[in-house]
Amino acid sequence: METQSLYKRLALHYLGAIKAGTLGAGDRMPSVRKLMAMHEVSLSTALQLCRHLEGQGWLEARPRSGYFVRHPQRIKLVPVEEPHSGTPIDPAQFVGIHERVSAIIAQGQRPIKFNLARATGAADLYPTVQLKNLAIRILRQRPQLLTKAIVMGGNKELKNALAKRALDYGISAAPDEVIVTCGCIEALNLALRAVAQAGDVIAVESPTFYGLLQVLESLGMKALEIPTSPQTGISIEALQLAMQTYDNIKAVVVVPHLQNPLGSIMPDQHKQRLVALCEEQHIPLIEDDSYGALIDTESAPTAAKHWDSTGNVIYCASLHKILAPGLRVGWMLAGRWQARISMLKYAQTRYNEELSQLVVAEFLQSSAYDRHLRRLRATLNVQRERTAEAIAAYFPAGTRLTVPHGGVSVWVEMPHQLSSKAVFDAALEHGILVSPGLLYSNSNRFNHFLRLNCGMHFTQELDDALRTLGNIIRQLAQAQLQSAA
Amino acid sequence: METQSLYKRLALHYLGAIKAGTLGAGDRMPSVRKLMAMHEVSLSTALQLCRHLEGQGWLEARPRSGYFVRHPQRIKLVPVEEPHSGTPIDPAQFVGIHERVSAIIAQGQRPIKFNLARATGAADLYPTVQLKNLAIRILRQRPQLLTKAIVMGGNKELKNALAKRALDYGISAAPDEVIVTCGCIEALNLALRAVAQAGDVIAVESPTFYGLLQVLESLGMKALEIPTSPQTGISIEALQLAMQTYDNIKAVVVVPHLQNPLGSIMPDQHKQRLVALCEEQHIPLIEDDSYGALIDTESAPTAAKHWDSTGNVIYCASLHKILAPGLRVGWMLAGRWQARISMLKYAQTRYNEELSQLVVAEFLQSSAYDRHLRRLRATLNVQRERTAEAIAAYFPAGTRLTVPHGGVSVWVEMPHQLSSKAVFDAALEHGILVSPGLLYSNSNRFNHFLRLNCGMHFTQELDDALRTLGNIIRQLAQAQLQSAA
User: Fold this and answer.
1) Which candidate from A136, A218, A348 shows the least CB-CB separation from B218?
2) ipTM exceeds 0.90, yes or no
3) Residues 326 to 345 of A: which have CB under 8 A from any B CB?
4) Digit-coded pLDDT (tens) for A174-220
5) Of A21, A296, B29, B333, which sits most exposed with the smallest number of CB within 10 A?
6) Of B147, B150, B153, which has the smallest distance from its Cβ to A128's Cβ?
7) Cβ atoms of B209 and B408 closer than 8 Å
8) Architecture of domain A5-69
């Protein structure tokens, strides 16, 4: 167990009660004395619990009266606009995003106070101590994993554990089908190399994460950006139309669950239609499911791969965002490209090191993994709500925001087509790093958007940072209006 | 320090005396009692020392007289034939080796008694306990390396340590120039992707290790196999001729130090000529230096990269063979392709995990690394000698063998153009895995060769296995002669 986890677990319990309405706005929180007795905890833990919820904005302290529940006022936010049937599709084009990404990343290499650009939670949202203890135990039991040549085929324990967990996503796969990779990014590389060549056209969501665009650029492939809904993901109609227009699409890449950057979740029916469409058109479907486990529900979402009966879907995932951002443990199920992708993986990086795989395998096999995910989802939920609340309060009128049902970030549309690069530069002056929308499309369709992380604990300082960011956007918007006038 | 390392260190001391002739064949080894007094060690350590040297064949026990030095009789072996100016060069061709390699590997997946096919030493030749202790200490000090997102640019400590070590090879590089990769194999992939495309011609040594051929196959590149001397490496003349014949060679890949499988070492003058030739012809030179540290000399060999003044040499290496076969820590210096290769690495697998890098960095910075290398080289030297001796004694007339000046394997030419696949199959029946020569050339020029590992402790059982292998070869050779008659 983590240090301090007791009060955090209690906090989640009370947060549930608040969200369910059991404790309403204005209700009095049980007194510290009562909390101590009810939960058999120390004074310090009971106080930590209350202060924690207070820090998150769910309680307010009234002098000499104790703690009272407050419902953070949920200001109505206008959701990000849906693409419509008239949304134009840019022609397929070679990708040239890397220099833009590198320049942004290089600029962010100065000391910063708030990194709102990352796509993982803060380290303390993950089970650091448990994983560390596991790693030490495994090193003691099997020190030769450091110095013994890795066996052909790679680590069996992890393949077993992943195949078992895949059942939760509706995927039935033999452990031997699992190919462990260096992060999901290697899985995407291998999938694309297996089904396409330099010069080929790949259909991707628009916006999409720049990591995928960089992969396409590095492989010399063309991106065909398909309009994608902030609510329901890639537009099946637009994709269908694109397939009629282009006869050389060699693959479709989608993130059906908590799409990056939109946070959209494809309804099951859409996933099913997408799988059928790709099969019908003989176009491989590459599914990136790195975030599925972060959806705000107890039951795991069903992967598109579930509806795949011909091996046309290549499923790629990773433990990077959901369990351990410091580890590079990705994996894939390669469908009918199993032999070719196994060959490519072997020729590219051989098998992964053993230690990380064993640590992850043991953790996945324990109930600690499920507990961790429940806690992580609940914590992120609160942080997302607080972030949305701050954006609603501090960002200027005309800001649009769809709060996704899970995950570590929100996608913000700024008013007046404001340049995300201008906001990035100005925010950096205040020690705040944001992820500018210009990175999420090769044709620069999303320059007036920002992706903001909500994987950090919501502190007063973070609230202040979001207020500063809101002021920056307001000032830039005003300056733009004035110069236009 | 390793358990039992004391007697091993003493064994190396006495081995030095034997090899220097201070203790000649037939001389009496100091008595166990005397060894105890001289070195202030226990009876058990003194006995272990003598039995260890006995097991390696350097001492023999005479009843009631003690231990006596024996010089393993060095039977004259005919070296493997040198390529000559008339050696034909096959046309550049697409590589189709993977299925052959996979079939061989799949066959070797049964329980075996002796794996003579691997290209690393046994795990106990590497500092398992030291590395494990380092890993545990680092995990305790920095547990968040498991759960904190990896910083852009990767681990600085390892880059510093590698840049410092590179000085020993005559390479002066800034730490920032070091790109850490998932093994040397990823470095080779990145280097080839940076300078060539599918369909391009790459000049390689012949024979060369099948890992490189698989990389070419997976990237759709053509191999042009250049005759290579078991003594001095790639033939500069043949390469020059090939460059005149083909105007589309996009890179030359060489292993200048302990070439795999030959074990050849390029003289400095050859390396210098090679660098100049490639530069003159505007053809990038990719140098794979995975084995350099295993050459039987105290002073490190000079890398070809040393003579590179224009950034035309891409230097690739790994800690896999020399420090920790269980880790996948490779690295490269990308010369004038620094920006492009950094991009490709980031797009392919992001940065490596931190733990292995920190473990390796700390070890490289300590004198333990130099001690480890000295011990490893001395042990391998003895094992190579014993293996050569056994081959000379047990293999049939007509066998040729060049014993390399370092490394973990020997390259054996069998008489009568015997099929290495037939030997592989027959040896497998006896639980012995060998690496057949058919894997080391796309045009199957080396089918009558075997690469045999000498990285395991030379035990009686291993001696028996080599005797069995010799008998297999003799019987197959006789059968072949009879069927031909």
Assistant:
1) A348
2) no
3) 326-328, 343-344
4) 999 999 999 999 999 999 999 999 999 999 999 999 999 999 999 99
5) A21
6) B147
7) no
8) Orthogonal Bundle (1.10)
